[in-house]
């Protein structure tokens, strides 16, 4: 076994690898970019090497620099994680040449599976079933359009070098093919440096079922069952589970065999995943093979009781696989939810910022949180916006689901937009509970998943007010204890004291709605009387250091959390979060009339195309400009019928978050 390894990655996966290495007594070397100098993976590793500036292209993707770091620190092997260089055959070859073990498959296997097109040809020869389509070398638009017509619409254009759901366009009509192809090519060229594509039949109502395989250098290969990753947005997984609901032992064995055949066809060694797309009738087609550890590997670990990173390290150091196929079994059910810094209401656009408050549910034998960040860390625009993976185990699917529901209800994130509540709604869908799964679930359930903004419940206003009183009191006590902070904000509330008889009014805001809460202290005992909308409530509360609030509202005892961030007050109550704000009565209304659909950059990125000429009349929703951010294209659309007066940027320009992009004039 190795004595020291280097991890050529960041975020949760780097932390995940470090955890197992430590258990096995292996020293770890982290690499990091300037943006990650303080990142969790750097804090956890035994040593860390700075490899370059924030941009991945200049740091995490510079193979030579990373291999050099391994040589400098005496690391014998490199774990590439997923993403970045994990499926880069050149990098694996560079490691090999330098005499450093690449913890992954042989260069030839990565190469063989690196292009979805070439992999499909190879699988065709190995007798693995394929999605109908064209995956040859010809790339002329007219030829590909003709192939699409032959396959019959809808079709899917995919970047051969694609991954992470990027570089994919569904096309429903022949007249849209050319534009979709051009946009797909652009995204592929920028994200993968390769604009070749393939065209496939778009399967309707499919499930994504993948098989975990493992090979060793002694000629063994096993499969560790399947994962169902059908719940996706933007062709990217959001929820994953194992085993796949409804899977029969016969089909599992058939898919397992097909996956092992696929792996053997390329002389596979290490962890790999063979992804299939399954028709409603159960028939399945090979989609691609990911020659690395998968993001969702923990669900397999939870149902097999194995540590897949440990297997990777053993296999890479030349040991045989720890188990034979007949020694592997499934125990229970596991579900993973990817917690992302993103805004579900804005098309899942990544969100960046500091995690001013981050409280995941407590880890236990049944609840696991894999993360690369802690409270106070920042989600930057440079890398993937995943905050954590939340994984639960249950004796059966129903129990796993119940645990997931509870864990999500406890998850608190403040500082970035995030998908925690979206996930909670998702797993609460009857269709999900009944395992009526396919990749269209999120779109189909749009109404339930994106509800209209609801009215803030009375309890939420009251809890926010109680927390405010507690907070003020704490400040007052601190000041009274002799602190010399004469400017402390509590002084604004002079004239109001808990043990006095004064009444105070607190003004809170939720979006456009403003609410006044009267706060009156009861003489003796520390109880309060709150008034809200003409109703009176007896209340008392205590606020913990972690923002947790225990409160008594009339006869009811409730637990909540109220997190303060600047003027904002995030109330977490009964599995929901309510972003409120303190409203200074003198400034009421300020900031509430920000135009919806303003034509600002939703995040830092690059302008790649202007879709219309200035002066053109555009209908509501029409494309105005295309930006690229986090390797994905985002179209800035007209908020209403109108005319572009001018563009403030040219294609190729970098723009900051919130940059004013377009001067737009509504036309009735
Ligand atoms: P998987 O295929 O493992 O289920 P995805 O397809 O969602 O997962 O994402 C894998 C790809 O997405 C990677 O190859 C990488 O391009 C990108 N990716 C996702 N998360 C990260 C991350 N935290 N760091 C780097 N790359 C990531
Ligand atoms: P990536 O490399 O980005 O993971 P995949 O080829 O694995 O790309 O496809 C990602 C997702 O896109 C799949 O999980 C599936 O939901 C969807 N998808 C892929 N191919 C098809 C298809 N032919 N028809 C319908 N959906 C598809
Ligand atoms: Mg895939």
Word description of this protein:
The protein has 668 residues and is an alpha+beta fold. The protein contains 17 helices and 38 strands. The strands form nine sheets. It has an eight-stranded antiparallel sheet. Strands 24-25-26-27-28-29-30-31 form an eight-stranded antiparallel beta barrel. A five-stranded parallel sheet has the order 3-2-1-4-5. Residues 489-500 and 585-597 have low confidence and may be disordered. Residues 275, 288 line the site of magnesium ion.
Topology, pairings included?
Elements lengths: L3 E4 L3 H13 L3 E7 L6 H5 L2 E6 L10 H11 L3 E3 L9 H10 L2 E2 L4 H8 L1 H10 L7 E2 L6 H11 L3 E5 L8 E4 L5 H16 L4 E5 L5 E9 L5 E13 L2 E7 L6 H17 L4 E9 L5 E7 L6 H8 L3 H9 L16 E8 L1 E2 L5 E2 L2 E2 L2 E3 L7 E5 L6 E2 L6 E9 L2 H14 L1 E3 L5 H9 L1 H4 L7 H4 L1 H4 L8 H23 L22 E8 L2 E9 L6 E5 L2 E9 L4 E6 L2 E10 L2 E6 L2 E7 L22 E6 L6 E2 L4 E7 L2 E6 L4 E6 L6 E2 L6 E5 L2
Parallel strand pairs: 1-2, 1-4, 2-3, 4-5
Antiparallel strand pairs: 6-9, 7-8, 7-9, 10-11, 10-13, 11-12, 12-15, 13-14, 15-22, 16-17, 18-21, 19-23, 20-22, 24-25, 24-31, 25-26, 26-27, 27-28, 28-29, 29-30, 30-31, 32-34, 32-37, 33-36, 34-35, 36-38
Summary, kept brief:
Helix content is 26%, strand content 32%.
How many helical stretches? 17
The main sheet orders its strands as 14-13-10-11-12-15-22-20
**N-to-C span:** 72 Å
Unreliable stretches, pLDDT < 50, 5 or more residues?
Answer: 489-500, 585-597
Strand content: 25-35%
The small-molecule ligands in this entry are: adenosine-5'-diphosphate, magnesium ion
What is the 3D form? globular
The helical percent reads 25-40%
> What about the largest sheet?
8 strands, antiparallel
Helix/strand/pairing class, anyone?
A: alpha+beta
């Amino acid at each position: 076994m190795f004595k020291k390894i280097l991890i050529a990655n960041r975020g949760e996966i780097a932390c995940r690898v470090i955890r197992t290495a430590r258990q096995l007594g292996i020293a770890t070397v982290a690499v990091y970019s300037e943006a990650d100098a303080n990142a969790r993976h750097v804090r956890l590793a035994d040593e860390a090497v700075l490899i370059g500036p924030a941009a991945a292209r200049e740091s995490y993707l510079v193979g030579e620099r990373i291999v050099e770091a391994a040589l400098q620190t005496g690391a014998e092997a490199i774990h590439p994680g997923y993403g970045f260089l994990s499926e880069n055959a050149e990098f694996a070859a560079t490691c090999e040449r330098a005499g450093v073990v690449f913890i992954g498959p042989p260069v030839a296997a990565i190469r063989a599976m690196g292009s979805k097109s070439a992999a499909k040809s190879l699988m065709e020869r190995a007798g693995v079933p394929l999605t109908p389509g064209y995956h040859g070398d010809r790339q002329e638009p007219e030829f590909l359009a003709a192939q699409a017509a032959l396959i019959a619409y809808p079709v899917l254009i995919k970047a051969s070098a694609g991954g992470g759901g990027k570089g994919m366009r569904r096309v429903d009509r022949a007249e849209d093919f050319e534009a979709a192809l051009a946009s797909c090519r652009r995204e592929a060229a920028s994200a993968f440096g390769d604009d070749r594509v393939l065209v496939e039949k778009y399967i309707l109502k499919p499930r994504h079922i993948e098989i975990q395989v493992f090979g060793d250098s002694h000629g063994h290969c096993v499969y560790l069952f399947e994962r169902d990753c059908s719940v996706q947005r933007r062709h990217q997984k959001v929820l994953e589970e194992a085993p796949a609901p409804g899977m029969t032992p016969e089909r599992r064995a058939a898919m397992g065999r097909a996956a092992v055949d696929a792996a053997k066809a390329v002389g596979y060694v290490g962890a790999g995943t063979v992804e299939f797309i399954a028709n409603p009738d159960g028939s399945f087609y090979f989609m691609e093979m990911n020659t690395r550890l998968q993001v969702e590997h923990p669900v397999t670990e939870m149902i097999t009781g194995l540590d897949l990173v440990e297997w990777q390290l053993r296999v890479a150091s030349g040991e045989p696989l720890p188990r034979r196929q007949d020694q592997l079994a499934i125990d229970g059910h596991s579900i993973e939810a990817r917690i992302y810094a993103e805004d579900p209401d804005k098309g899942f656009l990544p969100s960046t910022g500091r995690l001013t408050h981050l409280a995941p549910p407590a880890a236990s034998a049944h609840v696991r949180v894999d993360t690369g960040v802690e409270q106070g860390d920042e989600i930057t625009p440079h890398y993937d916006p995943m905050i954590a993976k939340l994984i639960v185990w249950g004796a059966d699917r129903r129990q796993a689901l119940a645990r997931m529901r509870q864990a999500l209800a406890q998850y608190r994130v403040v500082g970035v937009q995030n998908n925690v509540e979206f996930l909670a709604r998702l797993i609460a869908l009857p269709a999900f509970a009944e395992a009526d799964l396919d990749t269209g679930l999120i779109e189909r359930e749009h109404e339930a998943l994106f509800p209209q903004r609801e009215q803030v419940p009375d309890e939420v206003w009251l809890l926010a007010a109680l927390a405010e009183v507690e907070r003020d009191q704490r400040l007052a006590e601190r000041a009274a204890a002799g602190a010399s902070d004469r400017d402390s904000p509590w002084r604004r509330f002079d004239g109001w004291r808990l043990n006095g008889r004064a009444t105070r009014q607190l003004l809170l805001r939720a979006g456009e709605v403003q609410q006044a809460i009267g706060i009156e202290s009861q003489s003796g005992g520390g109880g309060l009387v709150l008034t809200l909308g003409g109703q009176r409530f007896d209340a008392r509360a205590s606020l913990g250091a972690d923002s947790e609030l225990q409160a008594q509202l009339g006869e009811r005892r409730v637990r909540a959390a109220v997190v303060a961030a600047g003027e904002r007050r995030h109330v977490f109550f009964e599995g929901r979060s309510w972003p409120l704000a303190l409203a200074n009565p003198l400034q009421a209304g300020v900031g509430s009339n920000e135009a919806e659909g303003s034509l600002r950059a939703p995040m830092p990125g690059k302008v790649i195309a202007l879709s219309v000429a200035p002066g053109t009349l555009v209908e509501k929703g029409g494309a105005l400009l295309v930006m690229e951010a986090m390797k994905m294209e985002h179209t800035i659309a007209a908020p209403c019928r109108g005319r572009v007066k001018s563009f403030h940027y040219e294609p190729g320009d970098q723009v900051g978050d919130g940059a004013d992009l377009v001067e737009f004039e509504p036309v009735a």
